[in-house]
From TrEMBL:
GO terms for cellular component: membrane. It comes from the Bacteria. TPR repeats lie at residues 274-307, 400-433. This is Putative regulator of cell autolysis. The lineage of its organism: Bacteria, Pseudomonadati, Bacteroidota, Flavobacteriia, Flavobacteriales. PROSITE patterns: TPR. SMART domains: TPR (SM00028).
């Protein structure tokens, strides 16, 4: 009990003290609602139709049937004309709307029926709109139009969407005419065709109206996990509040109403804010939390006044009932007096659906409030007004109650003659009411039977439709099976082709990767060999310097070192390049030969010849490729010769793509050179020539025989050596 009291106080603190102030601060965001009004039968636009927002702006349709009016979410749009019955539409979004109306003039109704009967292929939408038009007027006629909409027509089948819409409308008819069990079945049938959130909400409400409360709660809670619009979320929470209120669970009822109210406030759905304040008040009143209830009822009254008269009087009646329950009779009487004034000031064309808002009922309840305070004489005029109004409007129930209450008052104040007269009138009304009730029961039974027959007819049509669909499905099943087999075969062939292509692609990728890896390895090997050439060359050059120093020829050593430094700079600058222009290689070679000649002046002379036809910039050559051959010619051929030798280096163009490089010496030859080697020299392998041969082999592998080398003797006695290199441009 303490927990329940705590919840009431908490909700009251956060809700009642702030809700009205917060709503008052919030200004609903208006937008320009655009739409059109068309004839439901012909789809022709209707001009000069009255369009208004209840309690708001007013406009008319133009020649194309279009209109634009300032509105807010939750406002009630009213479409009126003498040519059709008034249409009411609750605005749920700012999207363009199309309002279809049916001609309701008595003289035009037969023409409409005749048009539909003579039209063999009348559209589904015509029948569906007709069913909606008669939904609140004639249940049987409305269901009859649904039946016609679902009947098979030549060359036209009912789509899944149309089937869903038809059963949704049928559920709406059942729910309006208090047949929730049938409504549940029809909403389920609609959802079987197409899942629709609005229909799911209607189904949950139908469960509650059919007193399947647990199914209703389960359906609403499942909807909370769906993707809902703000308006739908308000409806779901409100529906949960209604269901919990029906099973007297005040705590959960208030909780869900409050969630709905918060969502409505956040999205400025003003009419829902009014309704939810009222419903929270009712829930608190039902639970006995009267102070909290009064706070929310005050909010709902203030908000209802801002909407329209019909909504205001409805709320005043509801709050007056609360005051009656709370025995605050003066407040009740004041509200009912205001309700009577507003009912009398309303336009005659405006109808009020709530029977409690009739003038006879309000006068009767005012009289009851006076009787509860034992103010009998003040109650009598209101009872007489109630009786007169009820007699005029043939409201036998109110007339019966009012006449009986009047008889009791006359009896209590001692006016027994009037009491007897009133009681006799009461007996007459009861007899008349009894006859009327018997007629209504008979009509209700007949109505229920006819509706059930029509429902069975619709069920039969649905079964026939499903049977036809099954036959149609069976007729095409073999064709679909053949097509399926063809698709499977094509899929298998395509898959095999794809697998083969993938294998080819994988093989090509693998080959390419191996080739790239091999190329990378070759590049790495070239760099390694090139890095080994530089120390070998430097070591040999330093030996030459050392020889000059050994003989105390300081000037020669200095001059040698100067030229040597130039050579070393060129060698080091080219050491990181894979290829250098042939011109650079010739310059490097000339510098090297000059240094070797400086050391061995008495051993050989040299001559370097370059063919003038060669475009040196078009040919490239690996750096230090020729130097080892020149070094071999000097060190192993010419230096051992007794007389003056000759070193010739020739560059000759064979064709535009190829040149021949010849290195010729008339030294002792390769055979005798080996005899002059010391034992230590024999043990060591020539790194310069070995690395050069390896470099040439790798280059030819990478660049398709770029360099071709041939070494041979010059003279028949094995003296002299000739090295020929064939160098290709690309």
């Amino acid at each position: 009990m303490k927990n329940l009291l705590f919840l009431f106080l908490a909700v009251a603190f956060f809700g009642s003290t702030e809700s009205f102030a917060q709503v008052k601060r919030q200004v609903a965001k208006s937008f320009m609602l655009r739409g059109e009004v068309v004839d439901g039968e012909t789809n022709m636009p209707l001009s000069k139709v009255n369009v208004e927002i209840l309690g708001g702006q007013y406009t008319t349709t133009n020649l194309s049937g279009s209109f634009a009016i300032s509105a807010k979410i939750g406002d009630e749009l009213v479409i009126k004309s003498d040519d059709f019955l008034t249409v009411y539409y609750t605005i749920k979004s700012d999207e363009f709307i199309t309002v279809r109306v049916e001609n309701a003039k008595p003289e035009a109704a037969p023409e409409l029926a005749k048009t539909i009967q003579n039209k063999e292929q009348a559209s589904f939408n015509v029948y569906l709109d007709s069913a909606k038009f008669f939904l609140k007027k004639d249940a049987q006629k409305s269901i009859e139009f649904i039946t016609k909409a679902l009947e098979p027509r030549r060359g036209k089948t009912i789509s899944t969407k149309e089937n869903s819409l038809a059963f949704e409308t049928l559920g709406d008819i059942n729910l309006f005419w208090n047949q929730p069990d049938l409504a549940v079945d029809n909403y389920k049938q609609s959802l079987q065709s197409i899942k629709n959130t609005d229909v799911s909400i209607k189904l949950a409400k139908a469960f509650a109206q059919n007193k399947n409360y647990q199914e209703s709660i389960s359906a609403f809670q499942k909807l909370l996990n769906a993707n809902l619009s703000a308006y739908q979320k308000v409806e779901v929470y409100e529906g949960l509040g209604d269901t919990y209120k029906a099973i007297d669970d005040g705590v959960k009822s208030v909780f869900n109403y409050q969630k709905a109210l918060d969502t409505a406030k956040d999205n400025k759905i003003i009419p829902k804010i009014t309704n939810l304040n009222s419903k929270i008040g009712e829930a608190y009143a039902q639970s006995g939390a009267l102070n909290e209830a009064e706070s929310y009822f005050d909010n709902s009254l203030k908000l209802a006044k801002k909407e329209n008269k019909q909504r205001a009087v409805s709320e005043k009646n509801k709050v007056a009932d609360f005051y009656n329950q709370n025995r605050e009779y003066e407040k009740e009487i004041q509200l009912r007096e205001e309700t009577l004034e507003e009912l009398n000031s309303m336009d005659k064309g405006v109808t009020v659906d709530d029977e409690a808002l009739s003038s006879q009922r309000q006068n009767y309840k005012i009289a009851n409030a006076f009787v509860a305070q034992e103010k009998y004489k003040q109650a009598i005029p209101y009872l007489e007004k109630s009786i007169a109004e009820a007699d005029k409007k043939e409201d036998l129930i109110v007339q019966k109650d009012a006449v009986r209450k009047l008889s009791e008052i006359y009896r209590d104040i001692g006016e027994f003659d009037k009491a007897t007269e009133s009681y006799q009138r009461y007996v007459e009304v009861v007899d008349e009411l009894y006859i009327k009730k018997e007629q209504e029961i008979s009509q209700a039974a007949r109505f229920s039977k006819e509706v059930t027959q029509k429902q069975n007819r619709i069920a039969s049509l649905e079964n026939d439709r499903k049977l036809n669909e099954s036959r149609y499905k069976l007729a095409f099943e073999n064709q679909e099976l053949i097509q399926k087999n063809d698709r499977i075969q094509k899929w298998i062939i395509g898959s095999l082709i794809l697998i083969v292509l993938l294998l080819f692609f994988a093989a090509y990728t693998q080959y390419k990767n191996i080739k790239q890896q091999k190329f990378a390895n070759n590049v790495l090997a070239l760099k390694s060999l090139r890095s080994q050439m530089n120390p070998h060359f430097i070591f040999n050059a330093l030996n030459s310097v050392n020889s000059f120093i050994a003989v105390n020829d300081e000037r020669a050593a200095n001059k040698y070192l100067t030229d040597f430094s130039l050579l070393m700079r060129s060698v080091l600058e080219n050491s990181e390049e894979d290829f250098i222009p042939l011109e650079n290689e010739i310059e490097l070679l000339e510098l090297y030969v000059k240094l070797e000649h400086f050391r061995f002046k008495d051993k050989f002379n040299y001559k370097i010849t370059v063919d003038e036809k060669i475009n040196l910039n078009e040919f490239v050559i690996p750096p230090m490729l020729l130097q080892p051959y020149v070094e071999n010619a000097v060190w192993h051929g010419l230096r051992y010769k007794d007389e003056m030798g000759l070193l010739e280096i020739n560059f000759q163009q064979i064709n535009s793509e190829t040149i021949k490089i010849s290195i010729i010496d008339d030294g002792i030859g390769r055979s005798k050179s080996k005899e002059f080697k010391t034992e230590n020299q024999k043990k060591q392998k020539s790194k310069g020539m070995g690395n050069t041969q390896k470099r040439i082999a790798i280059l030819n592998d990478m660049y398709r025989d770029k360099v071709d080398v041939k070494v041979e003797n010059v003279f028949d006695n094995s003296e002299g050596t000739k090295v020929e290199l064939i160098l290709k441009k690309d």
